[in-house]
Amino acid sequence: MSSPSLKHHCGLFGVYGHPDAVLLTYLGIYAQQHRGQEAAGICSVGSGGPIQRYANMGLVTTVFHNKRILDELRNPHAIGHVRYSTTGSCHNINCQPILVNYARGQVAVAHNGNLINAGLLRKEFEEQGAIFNTTSDSEVILHLLARPAHLDRANVIPHILGHLQGAYSLLFLFPDRMVAARDPFGFRPLVLGTLENGGIAVASETCAFDIINARFLREVEPGEVVTITDKGMQSSRIVPADAFRPAYCIFEQIYFADPASDVFGENVHKVRQAMGAQLAREAPVEADAVIPIPNCARCAAMGYSRVSGILYERGYTTNHYVGRSFIMPEQVQRDLVVRMKLNVIKQNVRGRRLVVVEDSVVRGTTTRGKIGALRQAGAKEIHLRVASPPIRHPCHFGIDFPTQTELIAHERSVAEIRDYLGVDSLHYLSLEGMLSCVKHPGRHYCTACFSGQYPMPVDKQIGKFALERYQLKMFE
Question: Is the CB of residue 143 less than 8 Å from the CB of residue 151?
Fold first, then answer.
């Protein structure tokens, strides 16, 4: 993935009704560490409360480095979160789940996605005297919940979520219930599972169920709110099921989700293989070996190799003890991580014609460095094949793409990108070819980063730090 400025959204996990809910939640967010490496947190509660919280900056194993922390949180109901910021600074105050007290008691919330009207809502609340404790868009959800006009509503969550615009998969934890919700477009995945003792699990990805032996039940449907109590599950809706057309984020399939997961009803590994196979049909070339730029392009490279008949080889070794470079907050850190993480296998490269498969190219700086390393190792020819279309537009729904001018494909031709990257040929998978690899009709996916066709109107000037109007010293 060539994306030194690309950052992911977040990962959610929750368990209701299990004596080891906190331990299972720890394992569930650990299994989804790929969805965010900036911060981690868990909230838990027993019968009637109070809700307990522990969250901090760092990886799951770093934050919960001491078993005592999990022991102190031990309760039968828990939600957890791994974060990379798409709105708000990389700072401890923005760690999730967010826990607050309001007129009806305690509530914790964990959010995956991005709210495009958060700035307007926050301005409205502040003008009414509200005080915000974070610079995260997620906090406006809690202010909606605490609004006096909403306090007496019997089923308040669907109502308040109707005020939101953008992408959200959510987990709420109250002293007496857990609530899972997904926006009407279904941008971000959210799934339900069952545990052996009858407890309920909720996760961003099904790979989190595998680690705790939970059984996949179904997806939380777009626009659905699922309330989980001791009596079981109840479903309600933010809007009628036919009021919105799904806009599943295609980048979940291309890059973000774990290959072991089933996302939007399809196995991620199989979809990526199909994209690589389609790329081979669209952009054949004579070569000696197909090599992926690890790690996420491996599935696509396998598909390309199978259809083309060109040998699949390893061109790089990977240091698995180094984190994902795109999630690091500073460019210098990202560049260093890339150099530490990948090393060229010279014997597989020297004197050979290579098909190098990437899943996507965002800014191009990282790919350019990796291609340069192959040249230094003696590659005879390098033919870059990208298993997605050119990214020409920023994302406003939970993926921290750079501004449009930073995208390498913005106002550049494929030939210009080829020359910048230093490859002998360059081909991207077509938009139509990409959509042919998923089972849902193309109209059910959000492809705005490729096509510029957003599922809803967006303010293209809104940036990641739009909610930060004051430069506090704590952020320096």
Answer: no
How far, in Å, CA of 81 to CA of 384, rounded? 36
In eight-state DSSP terms, residue 95 is -
- Name the residue among 77, 33, 94 with its Cα closest to residue 175: 77
Whether residue 406 is found in the same domain as residue 310: yes
Count of C-beta atoms within a 10 Å radius of residue 377: 19
Confidence category of residue 471, pLDDT binned at 50, 70, 90: very low
Are 434 and 388 in contact, with CB atoms under 8 Å apart? Answer: yes
Place of tokens 């969550």: 157
E-strand ranges in 302-412 read: 316-318, 342-344, 353-358, 381-386
Percentage above 90 pLDDT, the chain: 75
Instruction: Supply the DSSP string of 13-49, one letter for each residue.
Output: EEEES-TTHHHHHHHHHHHTGGG--SEEEEEEE-TT-
Tokens representing 414 are 């494929």
Sheet holding 353-358, edge to edge: 289-292, 353-358, 381-386, 425-428
Which residue range(s) make up the domain with 328? 262-446
Q: pLDDT, tens digit, for every residue of 93-140?
A: 899 999 999 999 999 999 999 999 999 999 999 999 989 988 888 999
CATH number of the domain within which 168 lies: 3.60.20.10
Same domain, 225 and 310: no
26, 68 Cβ separation under 8 angstroms: no
Give the pairing of strands 77-83 and 10-16: antiparallel
- Same domain for 161 and 293, yes or no, is no
- Residues 276 and 240 grouped into a single domain: no
Residues 203 and 90 in one domain: yes
Annotation says 10 is catalytic: yes
Q: At CB < 8 A and 24+ separation, what contacts does 122-126 make?
A: 122/467
What's the gap between Cα 297 and its chain centre?
A: 17
**pLDDT category of residue 476 using cuts at 50, 70 and 90:** very low
- Catalytic residue (choose from 10, 43, 95, 449): 10
- Give the residue from 218, 246, 274 where a domain finishes: 246
Question: Do 406 and 271 reside in the same domain of the chain?
Answer: yes
pTM of the model: 0.90
Strands (E), 60-156: 77-83, 98-102, 105-115
Q: Is residue 476 part of a domain?
A: no
Whether 474 has a pLDDT exceeding 50, the answer reads no
Question: Is there a single domain that holds both residue 38 and residue 164?
Answer: yes
CA-CA distances (angstroms) from residue 100 to 39, 80, 108, 132, 173?
Answer: 19, 15, 6, 11, 11
CA–CA gap between residue 175 and residue 104 (Å, rounded): 10
